[in-house]
Every structure is written in C-alpha cells, then in structure tokens.
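Dear all,

This email documents one entry for the complex benchmark we are building for the journal club exercise. For each entry we list the sequence lines for every component of the assembly. Then comes the predicted three-dimensional structure of the complex as a token string, followed by one or two observations. Please use this as the template for your own entries, and keep the labels exactly as they appear.
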Amino acid sequence: MAQRGANPSARPPLPWHQRKPLRALVYHGFVGLFALLMLYPILWLVGSSFKPPDEIWTNQTAILPQEFYPQNYPNGWAGFGGISFTTFYRNSLFYATVGTLLSVSASAVVAYGFARLRFRGRRFWFAIMLVTLMLPTQVQIIPQYIVFKQLGWLNTFYPLLLPRIGGSAFFIFMIIQFIRSIPRDLDEAAMIDGASKIGIFRLVILPQLTPAIITAAIFSFYWTWDEFLVPLIYLNSPELYLVSLALRTFSDPSGQTDWGAIFAMSALSLLPVFVIFIAFQRYLVEGISTTGLKG
Amino acid sequence: MLRKKAFFIILALALFVLPTLALMAQDMTEVRISWWGSQNRHDRTIAAIELYEELNHDIDIVYEFQGWGDHWTKLSTQAAGGELPDIMQHDYARIEEWVANGLLMPLDGYIESGAIDTMSIADSSLAGGMVDGQMYGINLGNNSEVFTLDTDAFAEAGIELPPLDWTWTQFEEIANQIHDSLGIHGIGVLTSDQLWKSQYMGCCDQWSYAADGMSLGYEDDQPLIDYYSMLLRLQESGGMQSYEDSVARGDQGVEAQLIVSQEAAMAYHWSNQIVAVWNASGAERNFVMYPIPRPEGGQSQNYIKPSMFFSITSQAEQPDAAAAFIDWFVNSVEANEILEAERGVPISSVVRDALLPNLGAAQAEMFNYLGVIEMDNSPIRPADPAAHADVVNNIFVPEFVEPVMYGMISPEDAASYLREEANRILAAQ
Amino acid sequence: MAAATLNKAKRRKKSNFGQDNLVGYLFIGPWLAAFLLFTFIPISVSLLLSFTDYNVLANSGEFIGLDNFQRMFFEDRRYWRSVNATLKYVVFSVPLRLVFALGVAMLLNSYRRGVGVYRAAFYAPSIIGGSIAVAVMWREIFGNDGLVNFALNLLGIDGPNWLGRPETAIWTLIILAAWQFGSPMLIFLAGLKNIPKHLYESAEIDGANAWQRFLRITLPMLTPIIFFNLIMQLISGFMVFTQAFIVTQGKPLDTTLFYALYVYRRAFEQNEMGYASAMAWVMLMVIALLTALVFRSSSYWVHYEAGDGS
C-alpha cells in the first residue's frame, strides 16, 4: 500500500466517496455496519461455543454466555474413543492442501488448452465438461463406488484425490474466462520471439493469472475442507476421518448430543479456512496492479 | 523449482504412504462393525470394543461410526457394492426392508446353539427383532414412548399429577390448564408417525399396518380423525405448541425440546432420551415419566420397542466371530458397565440387576419407567413393512400431517386420502 | 466446425493460430483422462438407471422404459412442488447473489484503510457452509424471538414465524444464499483487478464521471466474469441442496423441497435410485438448455479483450 502511495500515477482515480473525509466516514459507517451484520451469526456461533450444556438451549438468543465454559473445546477436541481432532485436522489439512494443489494446477493447464488452442473437438469437450457439473453427485455415488471398489481403493484417499488430476470444471471454466480477457497481442508478440505454445502458457499467460489462481485456491481449499459426502463413502477407518465428517458424527437426533462441543469444533473448523483466505487475499489486491500496467 | 519439488513430494505421500496406514494385521480374525450415534455412544462403544480385544487376543474389531442420516447413506452404498461390515447397527423401522432384500442373516442358529445366549432375556425383549418368524436383530436396549412431566411446573400451576392410566381427555384438560395458569405450552407437537402407528392399539387393538404389511391395519378412520381434531383444538388454545412453531424450530434433537427451556411442562419422546433431556435441563429440575394417555375405557398404547439392533449382514465374512461379539455385548456385565445403558435399558436381567445400584437420577427414572410399562403394555407388532419410510416420508407427513395442521384440509378428507395412497404404496411393494 | 475454425484462422493476418491438435490435447489431456477414467462410467450408468426401477438395497432393477418419467410428470405431486420451490429459489437467489456480489466487490475495490478487514468480514459467511451449526444459527436468527423479528419490532412491525410459514420459509433460504455471496464476490474482485488501469486514466482525462466510467469501462470489461458467474450461479442455483438439507428439510408443506434434496431423498431414503436418476437427468436437460441459451446470448453482450467470441 505504501508503495502505491509513493507512485500516484499508478493509482486509479478516486471514487466519489473518497474525496472528502466526511464521505470516508459515510463509507466506513455504512460498510462497517454491513460487515457487522454479516459477522453476527459467526459471533453468535463463537459465543455459543462457550456456553455450558444446560445453557445452550435455555439461553439461546444471547451471544454472550452467562457462565463462561471453555470446557467445550477440550470436550470436543477429544473426539471419539481416543481418536482426537488432532488426527482429523491432520487428515483434513493433508487432503485440502494436496487436493487444492492438484485441482488448481491441473485446472490452469486445461483452461489454457481450451481458451487459446484450436483443436478438433474443442467445443464438444468443453460442453461435456460443463455438463458434468449439472448432474448431482448423489446419483453417481453408487456406480462410482463400484468402480473404485474394483480398483481396490476403498478406505484410501485415492478416490478423493485421483479424480482431481483433471482439475475441476468450475475452475477450468473460470480460468478460461480470465485467459480470454488477456489481450492476444501478448501471445503473438511472444510467438514472434519464437516461444512455443507451452512457452506462451508459462511466460505470458500464467503470470497474468495470479488473481484467478489465488481465487481458485481459496475456493478449492474451502470446498475440499468442507466436503463430506464423498469422504463419508470412501473413508471407513476413523483414523482417516476428516474434520467435516467428525463434525457430523457428533450428533444423533434421537440420542444425547453435546451441542457445546459441536459449536466449539464448528467454530474452530472455520479457522484454517479463514487463515488461508487472509493469507491469500492480499495477493488479490497487490499482485495485479503491475500486470495491469504491462497490458 | 523448489515449489515443484515440494508438490511432488506431497503427491508421492498422497499416493503411497497414506494407504499403508490402512493395512491391517494379518493373522487375526477381523470383524467389521458399523453403528450410528453421537460422541457419547462412540466413546462408550469403542471402550467396550477395546476391552473385548483385550479379552480376546485373536480378534480384531474394525469399527466405523457416523451420524444417523449418514449411517444409512453409507451402509446402503456398501450394500450395493457388496462391502457391508459383519455387524451393523439396525433400526426397527428399517429392518424389514433390509431383510426383504436379503441383506441380513438369520440368527436363530446362533440362539439355538447358545452362541448368542438368551437365558436371561425375556422373549418380549427379543420379539422386535423377528421378521417372518426368524430373528434378524438382537435388541440392544428396551425403549418405550413416554410423556415426561415437569413436576415443578405442575406444582407451580397447582395441578395434581394424574394417575398412570390417564386418558386423552384428562391430558387435554391438563395441557390447557398449564397454558392458562403458566402461560407456557402444555406440550410440544404430537404429530409423530410413532403416535400414528400405535394410535389404534389403545382403542381397537389394531396397528397402523396389517400383519402382512400389504395394507393399513385399521378399518375405521374415526379415532385418527378424533385425535387430530384434538390436536387442532390444542394448537388453537395454546395447550400444545403450534405445528408452525415446531417447523420453525426444526428437528434439532432431544436437547431442543420445549420442556428443556421451560416453554412446556410436558414432553413426548423415547424413554432412553430422558438422559439427554435431563442433562440439557440441569440437574436441579424434576421430571417424572408417564405412559401415553389412553382412550376412555381403552388399553395401553405403549409397547416395548428395541431401541436398536445389532444385525449380522449376509455379506459378513466372519459371522461366527460376529455372533460371539454380540453375545458378549448384550450379556457381559463388564461391557454394560462401560456402555451404561446409553442405548436403552439392557435386555438381560442379569445385566440390569448389576447396573441398578449405580444409576444416576435420569437413568433410575428410565429403569423404573420401563418396569411400569412391562406391567401394562400392548404386545409389539411386526416390524414396519419395507415401504414404511415411503409411506411416512411421501404420504403421512406431506399429505396428511402438514396440510391438516396448517388447516388446509379437514382431518376427515386427509385421513381418507392417507388411506387411499398408503394402501396403494403398500400393495405395490 | 473444423471449417469454421479454419476460416477464422484465415481471417487473421498471421496464421499462427492454426490447428493445434496435438498441443491442444496435451493441455486438456489431464481433464480428458480423469473424465474417461472416473466420471464417464458413473454418468453413463446413471443415465441407464433412469430407465430402470433400480433399488439400491436390492442392487437390481428392471428396464421399465419411460415409466419413471411418466411417474414424475403425471403422478408425483411432490415432484412438482420441488420444481416449484427450485424455480422460485433460482429466480430470486441468482440475481440477488450476483447484484450483492458485484456491488460489494465494487465497494471493496478501493485502496482505503481497513478494506482487507471488510473483505474478510464479507467473505466470512461463505465459509461456514454446511455445518450443523449453521442450521441452529439460522433458525435462531429467523425464530419467533430471533434477530430479524427483533429488528422488525423496533420498526413497529410484528414479524411472522419465518421458517414456520409456508409463504416465508423459502425466503429465509434465499436470504441465506444472498448472505453467502462471498464466492462470486471474490471472482468479481479478481476480475476487477484484471482491468488495465490505463483505461480509467484515459477516461478520466476525457472527463468521464464515476458512473460513466463504470458503464463504459468496468461493466464491459467485466462481462466475461459476469458471464461466468451467471452460468455458475444458475447451475448451482438449480442444484441447491445443502441449505434445505440442513435447515428446513423441505418443510413446511414442501415449500422448500428443492429438486436435488428430493432426488437425494428418493435415492437414499427410499433407495429408488432408478427414479432418482431419472429426475436428475431431467434437471440436467433443463440446466443444459438454459446454459446453452445463455451461451448463445453471450455474443451480444460479453466483451472479450482477446477478440474472439467462440
């Protein structure tokens, strides 16, 4: 930010509301209030995670607990029969990290193919790719289960990770749209300099894709972190369970449920996703202003 | 470059190292088991399993557990893939469907040979696991429907506790009195399909389904109409929580019952749930458990239901070892001291007597209540027909309960539509 | 199609963009391999199952022709309720999410102090996704004495029991969706960052005001991203599942019984995978048709810097 201040010519024109201090106040008042409203439910969740068991349903609306009860956290973290959230976090971090690396890197490569290269069947395969997004997973689960069973991959991470070598249709399409807004002059200039298609991808396209790739990484991490249906089906041993699965394993509508522990672990499970977001979002702001100038 | 390297290392980890974690010991008998539940049940069951493995060094119990809804999604996928575990926890409302599809193994042989010892178990406790004359599930705890009364609220309202054989008329009066004097509801909604299923036991010695499961089991819609007319009156007066309010609150488990937050003075639930209700309410509260009210001059609408079963699947690889484990789980005092009747009152009288001295207040009330029900109940009926879930999910709730309680259709019209559609589904299975 | 591509290539001065068959398949190879290995079979099987009465527990089914389709169109009342609920959700939630996402992205696309905090605050609701805690929380907010009615009360309005009334329940889910606008917002932000700054500078020199700059530069330059977000929100709108699954379970009176939820229920509660597959394929057809229409329309309103509309 300091850098940008030092170089006023690179700065975009100020929007109307930024020109006077009063307007800045209006901006912060309005956006700040709105932000607070957006955060209210999360504050409620965190507040409730400190309520003792006999307060959760009797003092439901309040954000602050009457009696501060941090015990929910160790109770929840203990997990089930000696398998604690340490295990679940390790599994989830592994899965979300590797899954994101696979999905996003493959998506960028595939997207370049669809966006910039002309080959026979391009439109056909692109349409097929979009169609795969339109069929609910629920009706694919059983045939897929039988395929992975034949491959001997039940109770492993293979069924969760290997399909990602092809990227994800959502990110591929998203990155395609970003590539298509990059001027072709750059490609052509590089080509005149003798760059191959692969060279163009590496040297011209990839550096311009930072915002798209960062966005994809943020989403992918969160979606992988949150995924439960496919892990539920393929991971049998509790030693392999993920945080998302463990959270759903806490409660039984017909039996005894430790809601305090659920709230505590739910609140805690937001943390890694939030950290990833905070760590990456600044690249959304900073990395790009220079590339914009290049074009 | 460095990033690339790191990436490949992680990839290699993913592909080769992790699955080896799943490798199991070779020369032991491996029994796979799967159940649903919450943290409490998982902890206790795993502790019991560990004890069993200690006592039997040649047995390795491999367990999987999940929440209620996920249990069925996962297990039916495993069934289609031929990957069912040896032992699965099963439910009274679903067992017939699984038996009809040949997925469970009859246990009669194990009971005759004594591999599953039933010496100290009453026949009535085992009857729930019978489908078409054969035993497919061993009951893990006795349960019965219950009306729990908040005695402090009753005292505050100046209402005397009713007799144990109270009637629906008395119930309606009490619910309204509570509302009038305390400004809270008498009770939460009473539209559960459980109450519909047992509805005809009280008046007419019938059951919602015919014995062969191919049609409804009651001839006269009138008792059902009368019951729902009463619910509509109570909803109107405030004696019962409105259906609308119950939908808005949703099904958030036992702990969210109105009696917990003192928004009602009575609650309807399963007897083993009293532990959860009492925990969530606080130890200083006082509750007493009552049977379901009965029609004027009618008989008990309560029956003793298996809370859940352990069944051996037909895809089991180690049925004998599985049967031995079930036998121990049900009959061992040591095991049940760990399990602490979390799945309901143990069916073995030996186990029950051994647990009695160490019970907490809620559990003591539960044991005591089951004793009351054992003295006066209606016999359990055949397990629900395979189409039960279809009837309840697609007809009873959306086409009967909801339109009636929202006042969109009269109980009379809804009851006859229910009959027509339910019979169509039942006949077609 | 090959001819069209060739023509296009000819039209360009340099013929460098000719056929890239080999490199093209090299680049999309990973996707193609994963598709053929892991997705093709399940998808094809589900299409076949839609013409059978396949039951999961029985693990068998017979070919029954078009009976499943006849059943859903003419005999299943709940099917049409689920169609109704889903359409209503799509019609309202998709534009709401897009407008919110774009509006907030514009607000946050400035370099003032604290904008990072706001960005995090606006994205936060989108990461709490599908946990059970969301259900409890959302019910609490829209409950009889919840936050929403408390606020309405201050304005002198007596709020309804939102989740309990058939007229209002679906709106709580639409609002939930609007509240979770974080992902399209981030994509818009990334898109805004990609707009070359010199365009704004020259516009300002020409004396364009903020509104004019938005209309002439931001909006057209953002159309590829708007197009992407529209398509994706449309698809995910039709496939909406989690909100209803965890919060309302389709109640009351099936007014929130979303299509995908009904498919799931039929598939895993009644084990009627054949019927569920048939329903899923009907939805696929509808979404595919709509997506194709949006793609058709895109040549009229989507502006690509790269200069090709294909």
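Observations: Residues 2-21 of chain B form the longest helix (20 residues). Chain B has a mean pLDDT of 90.
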